## 1
Amino acid sequence: MAISFMATPHPKQPYASSSPPPQRKGRACRYTGQAVRALPIRVITVGKKRSEGVRLLVDEYKTKLKPYCSFEDSLVRSNPRNAQDVRAQVEDEEAAIVKLIGPDDWVVVLDERGRDVDSEQMAELLGDAGNSGASRISFCIGGAYGHGSEVRKRANLTIKLSSLVLNHQIALVVLMEQLYRAWTILKGQNYHH
C-alpha cells in the first residue's frame, strides 16, 4: 500500500543568526475535519524494563488517545536468549515482533534512516492507514541494533522521528505524543499550532 505525502520544503537556516527564525507556515492535513476510520494502534517496542518516568508518560498518552482510537503497547524483551552475536540478537527480537504483527496490520517501522515526517504528515499517515483496509496500525520500535530484514520487508512505511538516534524509551514517548498530536490535527482541535 503506497502512501502519498506532499513534500514540505525545509529551508536551511544558519545555526547562529541575529534575526529571529522565520515563522513556519504549516500546511493543512488533507484529512482535517473529515471522517477518518480510527484503526486500533499497537506500538511494539524492543527493550528492557521501562523507567517509572517513561511508564507515567506512556500511561498519560494512552489516556489522551482513548477518545480517538484503541491503543495497545507491547514490549518485546531485547536479546531474549542473551546472544553474544548481534545477528542472533536481532533475529530473536525480530521473531518476537513478527509474532505480534497480524496479516492485516498496516506496519510502520521507526528507523533512523526512514522517511522524515512532520506532524501533519503523521496525521495523514493515520488517515491513509484508515483508508487502506487494514485492521490495525502497528508501529515497530527496534532494539539497540535496529530491525531485521523480515520486519523491514513487512513494513508498509519506514519513518524516522528525528535525525538523531533515540533510545527506545525516548522514541516511544515521542511517538505517543505525535500520535496524540496527529489525532488532534485530524479532528481540527486546538493542540497543534
Note: The radius of gyration is 17 Å.
## 2
Amino acid sequence: MAGLNVSIAFFFLVVGVCQLLRQLSKRLLSPGAYGCLARELAGSLQLCTSCLELRMLLEIGLWGGGFGPDVVLTLLFLLFVVHGASFDGAAANPTISLQEFLLLESNLAATAAKLLAQVVGMGMGWAVTKLYWSWELTHFHLIQNLIASECSSSIHTSLHHAAFVEGTCSFFFHLVLLKLRQSRLMYRVPALAATVTFLTYTAVPFTGAFFNPALAAATTFHCSGSSFWDYIQVYWLGPLAGMLTALLLYQGNIPRLFQKNLLYSQKSKYKIPKARIVVHVEGDEPRQKRKGEKSNSEPRA
C-alpha cells in the first residue's frame, strides 16, 4: 500500500501545482488569454498526469500491488470530482471545445487557441509523468520503467469495433454533458464523474476508454501494435463522430452548420389570445358583447 500512498500524494501535488498555476495566470493574464490558453493548459496538464498514473496503477497494481480495478475506479471517480471542481471551466478535451464552437459559444480563433493549449498541456503532462517515474519512488515505477520501452497498443479488439466503442463512450459523455451544462456545479460534477467512471469500466478492456483525442495522443500513440492511421480512426474520428451524434440528437441541429431543426418540431409556447368585441353602451362602462347577443344601441337623432 506504500506505493499507492505515493501515487495519491502525487495526485494531490499535481492538483495543487495546477491550481497555483491557474491563480497566477488569472492575475497576470487578460481574461481572454487566461480562458483560451492558461486555463486549458493547466487543466490538460492535470488531466494527463493523473490519467497516466492511474493507467499505470491499473496495469501493474493487480499483480504488483495486490489491489484490483475497484481501487483504481474509485480513485478515477474521486479525481474527476476534483478535476470538475478545480478546472474553472476548462474543457481539457478537444471534442468539448469543438462542441462549444459548433454551439456558437466560441469563435474560431478562441477554439484554435484552446486546442493548441490542450495539446501542449497533454505533452507537458506526459513529460512530467515520465520524469516522475524515472525517480522510481515505488516498485510500481520501477516496473513501469522496465516495460515502458515495450508498451503495446490499447486497442484489444477489431478496428471497427474499437472505433465504435470510443464513439459510443464519447456519445454518452457528451449527451450527459449537454443535459447538465446549465445545472449547478454541485450536481454536474459528480454526475459527470460517475459517467466517466462507468464508461471507463465498460470500455477499458477494448480501447483503454480515452474518448479524449489529446489524451489518447499523449499516452498511447507512441506504442507499437497499431499504425498511426489506426489510432486516428479509433481515438480521433470515433470520439468526434460520437460528439456530433450527441449534439444532433440533443439539439436537433448543429447551429454552426445549419439552423433548421431536423428532429424536433418547434411550436410556439405563447398562445395568441382571441379578439374580444366590446360594446359601448351610453351611460355605462364598456362591457363585453356576449356570443349571439344583438346590439341594443340605436342611432342617435
Note: Strands lie at 278-279, 287-288.
